[in-house]
Amino acid sequence: MKIDSGTTAWMLAATALVLLMTPGLAFFYGGMTRAKSVLNMMMMSFGAIITVTIAWVLFGHSLAFTDNASSAINNVVGGFDALGLQSLVDTATKDDGTGMPSLVFSAFQLTFAIITVALISGAIADRAKFGAWILFSILWATIVYFPIAHWVWGTGWLNTMGIEDFAGGTVVHINAGAAGLALCLVLGKRTGWRKEPMRPHNLPFVLLGAGLLWFGWFGFNAGSELAVDGTAGLAFMNTQIATAVAAGAWLVVEKMRDGHATSLGVASGAVAGLVAITPACGFVDPWAAMLIGLLAGVLCAYAVGLKYKLGFDDSLDVVGVHLVGGVIGAVSLGFLAAYPFLDQQSKGLFYGGGFGQLGLQVLGPVAVGGYSFVITWVLGKIIDKTMGFRITVDDERTGIDVTAHAETGYDLGTVYASGVTSPNGPTAPAAKKVDA
Amino acid sequence: MRLITAIIKPFKLDDVKAALEQFGIKGMTVSEASGYGRQRGHTEVYRGAEYQVDLVPKVRLEVLAEEDDTEDVIDVIVKAAHTGKIGDGKVWSVPVDTIVRVRTGERGPEAL
């Protein structure tokens, strides 16, 4: 297959769409924190763009998408053939069977690695040292994300067995959700959690972020077909269907349970729908996309209350939306998969595929979620015991924006405006004087 | 001269302002405030979780008046701000020694 201009053009655009999701996520998460920590929240997403890009170029692509010489090791992690991406440059003009230059495929996959890492940050809002987060993001991508991408999408063991994960329900969302749960347990609850109201400070930001995520997700899901064909169209339409249904379902649950349909609910419901349809979008019929959206909207709306019952401060509901939504999507394929495309994959139970695929769709989340949870917990503990993962209580009370970044999100007061000292906190490091 | 301070429900501000204007009060200062009295805050449900909201949003309204008008002004405010439900607020007055209009330097009742 020669370089195909249609495929290449679409994949370039899809890559840019998926990259936009991470700034979108920054708005989605940033609006949900309190005003004093909006910048830190957004910086964690932008930080992930930096660190994961560098790790991807140096060794990430290689560990995820090349084959290891030892077939035993290759089940778990890839090899070293593409370190620094140098070996991919040549194939830019050669035939590698994908219809697009290898570097375009690499850039597309890079954007998935970035947003997976950024997603975790929602579990530890307001309280994580920025330097610790930066270090964590590099180590987590290396030890958890790159191998898991290899398991499911490379030539690793889950792919060999025939797991179905069209665009990353398991690799991205279950993975990030389990990691978020582990990390919020390592860091502990925010000071004042459950005593003080910690309502979102900027819901227009949350809606803006949800809109950008929704938009970018078309690149995420339809782009994951890696071609311009009927399956890409199916994935595109299913993405829209499940998302709209889930957002509506979440609102209905809220209205019946709490009495009000909230803007946070519509944003969360949309994201829950996007998450759940992610693994399924290219495998299922439109009616199944509606069902998946309905399940995601209803179940995730209840799942975000789990943290209060169980007592973990998953601040922005990474577990309730991404872990639960990801599991809904992954398991649903065991019933609803209609269009498997690899030889080792089969149809779901409702399409006469038997229980084999269902078993695999349960095994995937258990294996990926379990690995991610355990490794993240250990990694978090190591960072916490050595450099410390959490800021001091005083800094947390003052606000991490002022104490960690010497900025505030909103300089609106007339008394304090335009200085680094702000109503949010007493003193930040003064700006250095510049001699003219 | 006296300073009359009223803590009222925010949605009652327009009524109180209109009543004071009709009475002949020429100026006032209004600020957003939060606090609680006998109502002791309330619980709110959001995203399936219950929150205890201790400090309830209020409006703080300050008016300067002549000694003789004080009781009338207080009555006007109380009447306009009244709903009969818990959390209606409070009104109080304190004596004021000196008032100066910054622009002209007028002092005392002239500055009102």
Give the structure's gist in a few sentences:
Chain A is mainly α. Chain A has 17 helices and no strands. In chain A, helix 1 packs antiparallel against helix 9 (203-223), helix 8 packs antiparallel against helix 14 and helix 9 (203-223) runs antiparallel to helix 10 (230-258).
Structural write-up:
The complex is a heterodimer of chains A (436) and B (112). Chain A has 436 residues and is mainly alpha-helical. Chain A contains 17 helices and no strands. The longest helix of chain A has 31 residues, at 356-386. Chain B is α+β, with helices and mostly antiparallel strands and 112 residues long. Chain B is 21% helix and 37% strand. Chain B is built from two helices and six strands, in the order E-H-E-E-E-E-H-E. In chain B, strand 3 (42-46) and strand 4 form a beta hairpin. The longest helix of chain B is centred in the last third of the chain and has 12 residues, at 70-81. In chain B, 19% of the residues are buried. The chains are: A mainly alpha (436), B alpha+beta (112).
